Amino acid sequence: QVQLVESGGGLVQAGGSLRLSCSASGRTFSSLAMGWFRQAPGKGRKFVASISWWSGVSTYYADSVKGRFTISRDNAKNTVYLQMSSLKPEDTAVYYCAASNLGAAAPRASALYDYWGQGTQVTVSS
């Protein structure tokens, strides 16, 4: 079992930046692929970014965030990050951290993730 706790959400003006963190416990973090998803009000959960078990091997981004968001991980701290820059009002959503047992991959499908955090709200004002 893996427990995930997100932090770092909040209210920011358009054009601003935020860094989300997700701390993991309960299993060997370095064996897990990690992902970020988001869910806007009235919409389904969507893929944002993912990273394979070892930083730098595989990372993927949704087209809507490519060039603005960066996913990274620190296996020594059991933490994955999502650095968000040039934020837009359409980035407003609850952001979820997720972990997948498919460690060598960096899945983009939510169904391939086994563990989920509780979510953190990100609100971007115009």
Write up this protein.
The protein has 126 residues and is mainly beta. 0% of the residues lie in helices and 49% in strands. Strands 2, 4, 5, 6, 9, 10 and 11 form a seven-stranded mixed β-sheet that branches. Strands 1-3-8-7 form a four-stranded antiparallel β-sheet, with no helix packed on it.
DSSP helical segment count: 0
Strand content: over 45%
- Give the rounded overall mean pLDDT: 94
Estimated structural class = mainly beta
Work out the helicity level.
under 10%
Radius of gyration: 13 Å
Secondary structure tally: strands:
11
Largest sheet: 7 strands, mixed
**What is the N-to-C succession of helices and strands?**
EEEEEEEEEEE
Shape: globular
Termini gap: 40 Å
Which regions have little confidence, pLDDT < 50, spanning 5+ residues? none
Short description:
With 126 residues, the chain is mostly beta strands.
Descriptive terms for the model:
126 residues; mainly beta; 7-stranded mixed β-sheet; 4-stranded antiparallel β-sheet
List the helices and strands and how they pair.
Blueprint lengths: L2 E5 L2 E4 L4 E8 L7 E7 L5 E7 L7 E3 L7 E6 L4 E6 L8 E8 L14 E2 L3 E6 L1
